[in-house]
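tool_log.txt
---
The assistant was asked to compare two proteins side by side. It first ran the structure predictor on the initial sequence, then on the second. Raw inputs and outputs are pasted verbatim so the downstream comparison step can read them without reformatting.
(1)
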Amino acid sequence: MKKQTGMVLGLLGAMCLSAGQAQEKSTPNGWVAECVGRVSLEIPGKYEVGATPVEQLLQEQRGFTSGYIPSNFQDGQSASYSAIGYQGQVLISHRLSTETLKQLQSAVQAEEQRAFKYVAQQNKLSKNGRVVIERLGIAPHHGDAHRTDNLLKVKLFADSHFMSYTRSGPDEKWDSEGKPFFESFIAGIHARPNGDVPGQSGVCMPYFFIADNGTQRHFVGTTFRLIAHPDVTIFLEDKLSGEIDPKTQDASKFTSDYITDSFWTYYGEYGKIKVKSLWSLPVYRHTQLAGQKALESFARIQREDGEEDFGYFSTARGDPNSKEYRPDLRFYVIRQAKHAKDKGIEPIGKEAFLKMAQAIAASVKRRPTTPN
C-alpha cells in the first residue's frame, strides 16, 4: 500500500482560503522561503536542490569538459535546466564527504600547477609577448584563484560544498575591470544554507550567496525536489533582461508565447513525449510572475512508457529599461509519478498539483532588497 503524505491534504485545506486572504499571503503558512537570483519564492515543505555532480567537477578540474555541464539531485535524478552565470560560469556541488573534498582539493592544486607550467613553456617559445599568470588572494575563504591574462578561475570550499568559477574578458582590461570585479566577488560571496534568504542586495545560488550592488549580469536557474513528494520538481530562473538587437536578433523569439512553445517542444523531446494542454482555448493564460505580465500553461505529459503526468509552466519577459528590477523569468512545476511510486508514495493528483503550482508561482517576488 502506498503512503499518502499529509502534504496534499494540507495543501488542499490551506488553499481553500478566501480570495482576500490569498492576496494577503500568496502561499499557505508553513511553507519554506527560498531565493533564486534576485527573486524569492515559497516552497511547500522540505526539499532538495539540484547541483553539479562531483564527477563532472573532477573532470572540469582535469580539463576534460567543455560546453554544457548537467546538474542532478544526489540520487542521480536529472535537474537538467539548472544553470548559473554571474559574469561567467558557476558550478556548485552538493554537500560532499571529507574524502571527496580532499579529492577536489588535490585536483584544484594539480590544475593550477598545470596552468603555471603551460604558461612558462609558452612564454619560452613565444616571440609575441608574454602571457601573464598570477595567483590571487581569496582570504578569508579557502581554495584557490589565479588568472591567465584576463581568464579568471576561482575555486572555493565552504560548508562542505565546492564552487568552481570561470570568467574571461579583454586582456587589456584586467586592471580596470577584471581585478575590481574579482575583489568584489571575493568580498561578497559566502555560504548560504537552504532556506536562508539574505536581507541584502545580491544573487542567491544553491548553497551560496554573492552580495553586490544589483547591477551585475547574471542568470540563475535552480531546480528543487519536494522530499514528501519526490514526484514533484520545481524550477525557477531569474535572468537579467537585456536589450534586443533588431539587426541580429528576432524579437518574436523573446516573447512569452514563443518561450512557452519552445519549453513544451523541448520538454517533449520533439515528439518522443506527448504534451497536450489540459486547458481549452486559450491554452496560454495571462497571469503574473513577480508583479510582471506573464503567461501560464498547464499540460498533460504522456511519457514513452505510457505513464501520464502533469506540468505547469509560466514565463515573463523582463524590461531592461525599467527603473525597478524586472528580469526575464521562467518557472515550472513538473510531476513525474514514477519517482513517488518507486518510494511507495502516492503521487500528487491533478487538481492538487495545479493549485500547488499556481500558489508557488504567486509567491515569486522581487526581493525587497533589490535596488531600484
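(2)
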Amino acid sequence: MANKLFIKSPVKDVAVLDIKLNLGSLQEVKPGLANVLIPLWRMNNYARELERIGISFSFEKGLDALTLRVKARYSVVNKAVSLIENMLVNPVIDRLSDAIREAKTSISVNREDTAIRSVAEALRILFGDHPYSRHPLAYDYRLDDVTREDVKSAIDNLRVLSLTVVAPEDTVDLNMPYTNYSKVPVVKFGSGEVDVRLEGKAQATITIAYPSYDITDLENSFRVTIVNTVLGGMGLISRLYREVRVKRGLAYYAYSMYWPLGSSGVLMAMAGVRREVLREALDVMLNTIGDASITEEDFGIAVRNRVGRLKVTAESPDGIAMLYSVIPTYGLPRDYYDRFINYISRLKPEDVSRELRNLPRPAIAIVG
C-alpha cells in the first residue's frame, strides 16, 4: 500500500504510529472543523480507554493534515488500533457546544502568543485566499458556525492520507478508507507588512516569510533546507542569532525555519524584540537575509548540522515516525533521506548564495 510505510523499530516491544488524516487547513470544508473535532474525540469512552491502558496519543492539526500520533507497547498495539478506529468515527456530537468552547479558548490563547500570532499573520498575507493562509491553531475561525451536520459530514468523509508504523513487526493496519494527498496550487503570493498591537505585551515578535519550494521539488527543497540552516537553523551559531542578538543585542531570540509543505513551501525568519528597537532589528534581519556571502566554514557547519540532526532524530521510534511520515504522505521516494544527504554533500556555498539573492519580496508580520 503506497499510503503505508513500515519501519522496524530499534526498541523492543514499542510501537509508534503516525496517522495523517484529511483534516488539515488544506482539506477542511468548513475552516476550523478539525479544531472542534479534536475535543469531541477526546470526550468519548474510546479515548478514555486508551488512556486507561497506558496508550499515549496526541492530535496536531497542520496545514496539510491532521496528525494523530500514537505510542504503545507492541503487545497491545492491535487493541490500541481498534480503539483508535472507534474513537475517530464516534465523536461525542451531543457535546458540540462544549467542544466549540474548548476550541475557541485554545485559539484565543494562541492568538495572544506573539510568536504564534505573528506566524499566523505572515501566512495570511503570503497565501491570501489559499487555505495555507489559515494557521491551524491561531486563525480567527468562526467556530460558532460549526453544526452537528458539519461534524457528521466530516466523519463520513474522513480518510487516512498516510500511516507510518515503527514497530518490531509489520502487523499493524487501519481498517479505514485511505486517500492520496492532493495539491492545491498557490495562484499568487502576497507581500507587504502588518503590525498587530496586543496590550500588555513586554515584547513583539517579527516574522518575515518568503514563498519557497514544496516538498516534492526534491533538490530545490533540499537546497533551501541548507539556506535555512545557515540563516537561523543552528541555534546560537546561526547567522541571524549572531547578527541580531549577539552583536547588537536587539532581540531576545532570532532564528529561522523552513516548512516544505505539499502545495508550497515557506521560509521564515523570526525574532522577539522590544518595541523601541523594532525597526532597527527588522532592518538588521532583512540585511542579514539579503547578505548572499557564505563562507566555506559556515556552509560546512550547516551541512554537518543537518546530517547530524537526522542521525540523532532517527535513534528513537518517535523520531523515526516523525521523519519518515512525509514519505507516504506526499508519495516521496523511499530513499528520500539518502537522496537528501547525497545532494547536500555535493552543494557549494555559491548554491546557497544564489538562493538568497533570488528571494522574492516577503510578507512581514509584527505582533506585540
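---
observation on (2): The chain has a mean pLDDT of 96. The first helix runs from residue 33 to 42.
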